[in-house]
Design a protein that fits this description.
The protein has 386 residues and is an alpha/beta fold. It is built from 15 helices and 10 strands. Strand 4, helix 7 and strand 5 form a beta-alpha-beta unit. Helix 1 runs antiparallel to helix 5 and helix 4 crosses helix 9.
Length: 386
C-alpha cells in the first residue's frame, strides 16, 4: 500500500519539472493547466464585488440559498424534485471525491478507476486506504471492454469512479456504456462516484447522460459537479455533491473534518450563476464548440495527429513521430524550444504510455492562434530522433 502511494507521489513530483519548464520563461503559453483566460459572466463578477463591500470574515456556514439554487438546477437535469438538504458544497470537486472515498470505503476495499484518469483519483483512493483497480479505455475512441470491466467488478469493489466527460481524453460515455456500468453496479452492489465537472461542455452529436438519472442508480450514486469550469472561475474552487439522504449525510460528516466549507463570500457570489437559464449553457456549449473547431483545424493544418474530444476542453496529441522515449522530456522541450506548455500523457495512464501529451483549448481565440503559430515551428525546433 505504501509503495503504491509513494509511486503516485513520486509521479506528481516528476510532473513539477514539466510545470517549471512550462512556466519559465514567462512567454511560454500555458496550454497545460485548465485555467481560462477570458472573462467570467458579468452577473458573477458583479456579485463578488458586492460581497467584497460587505465581507463575511467568519467561518463559512451552510448557505441554504446556495443549496436551494443548486437543487433547482438538479431538478432540471434529474427530472424530479431534489431536496436542498441533499446538496453539499465544497472547495471544488476534489474534496468530495475524498469525502466519498472515506465515507464508503474502508482499508482494503477496492475502487474501480478507468484509465486514463485524472491523477488525483488514484491518490485519493489510496489515501483513503482503498486499493484501485484500473480498467483501460482504449484510444483513440477510448472505449472499454465490458468483459474486462466485469472482471474488475468480480473483485467486489466498493465503488467505481466515473469521470464523464473525461479528463484527459474528452470521452463522453454513451448511454449504452453507462447502462452497462449501471447493470454491473446493481449486480455487484457497487456505489458510483461521478465527476461531471464538464457536464455543460459537450460537442454534437454527443449528449451527456447523468448517471444518477438512470433507472435504479439514484440510490447508489454520488454526483459531483463543479462551478469552476461551468462559470470560468477555476480559482474560486467551488463545487457541490448531490446524493440521497443516507449517502449525503455520511459525506457531510467526513467533509466537515477535511475542509469545513467553502469561502463564505464565494458561496453567495456564485448564486446568480446557479440561477442562469438554459440560454447561458447553450451559449457556453456554442463557444467551446467554436474553440474546439478553431484549435483542432489548426492542428489538422499542421498535420499534428490528435484525438477528437467529445466533451471537456482537452485534446491528446500523438507525438510518436518524434521518437522520444520520455513524454516528459518532450514536454520540457516543447516548452523551452517552441513556447507551448503541455502535460505528459503518462500522468494519466496506469498502462505504460509515452507517446501522448495533453493540451487544452479553454483560451481566448488570440491565445489559441498564438499557440498554433508557435506549433508551426514544431518539427523544425524538435526534429525527430533516430
Amino acid at each position: 500500500m505504501r509503495h503504491n502511494f509513494d509511486e503516485i507521489i513520486n509521479r506528481r513530483v516528476s510532473e513539477c519539472k514539466k510545470y517549471e519548464a512550462a512556466c519559465y520563461p514567462e512567454d511560454v503559453l500555458p496550454m497545460w493547466i485548465a485555467d481560462t483566460d477570458f472573462a467570467v459572466p458579468a452577473e458573477i463578477s458583479e456579485a463578488i464585488q458586492q460581497r467584497a463591500k460587505h465581507p463575511c470574515f467568519g467561518y463559512p456556514i451552510e448557505s441554504f440559498e446556495f443549496e436551494e439554487a443548486a437543487a433547482r438546477w438538479e431538478r432540471v437535469r434529474f427530472g424530479w424534485n431534489v431536496d436542498p438538504h441533499w446538496v453539499k458544497y465544497a472547495n471544488g470537486v476534489l474534496p468530495f471525491l475524498m469525502d466519498a472515498s472515506r465515507a464508503y470505503s474502508y482499508p482494503g476495499d477496492k475502487v474501480v478507476i478507468f484509465s486514463p484518469f485524472y491523477e488525483n483519483y488514484s491518490a485519493d483512493t489510496i489515501l483513503s486506504g482503498a486499493v484501485p483497480i484500473y480498467v483501460p479505455l482504449t484510444p483513440p475512441s477510448f472505449t472499454f471492454d465490458p468483459e474486462v470491466l466485469e472482471d474488475a467488478f468480480r473483485q467486489h469493489p466498493k465503488a467505481l469512479v466515473l469521470c464523464n466527460p473525461s479528463n484527459p481524453c474528452g470521452k463522453v460515455f454513451t448511454r449504452e456504456e453507462l447502462e452497462i456500468i449501471a447493470g454491473l453496479a446493481k449486480k455487484y452492489d457497487v456505489y458510483v462516484i461521478t465527476d461531471e465537472v464538464y457536464e455543460h461542455i459537450i460537442y454534437a452529436p454527443h449528449q451527456h447522460t447523468y448517471f444518477a438519472a438512470l433507472p435504479d442508480m439514484w440510490e447508489r450514486t454520488l454526483s459531483c459537479s463543479s462551478l469552476s469550469k461551468t462559470y470560468s472561475i477555476t480559482g474560486w474552487r467551488l463545487g457541490y455533491i448531490i446524493a440521497p439522504p443516507e449517502i449525503i449525510d455520511r459525506a457531510k460528516k467526513v467533509h466537515d473534518f477535511l475542509t469545513v466549507g467553502a469561502a463564505a463570500p464565494l458561496q453567495e457570489a456564485i448564486i446568480p450563476g446557479l440561477n442562469f437559464g438554459q440560454d447561458y449553457y447553450d451559449a457556453l456549449q456554442a463557444e467551446y464548440t467554436h474553440k474546439k473547431d478553431l484549435f483542432l483545424k489548426g492542428l489538422d493544418d499542421l498535420k499534428i495527429v490528435h484525438n477528437d474530444p467529445e466533451g471537456a476542453y482537452y485534446v491528446m496529441l500523438d507525438i510518436s513521430e518524434f521518437g522520444y522515449e520520455s513524454d516528459l522530456q518532450f514536454c520540457e522541450d516543447l516548452a523551452s524550444k517552441v513556447g507551448v506548455g503541455a502535460v505528459p500523457g503518462s500522468s494519466f495512464f496506469r498502462e505504460p504510455v509515452n507517446h501522448l501529451i495533453r493540451l487544452h483549448f479553454a483560451k481566448k481565440d488570440e491565445t489559441l492562434t498564438d499557440a498554433l503559430n508557435r506549433l508551426e515551428s514544431l518539427r523544425e525546433k524538435i526534429p525527430a530522433k533516430g
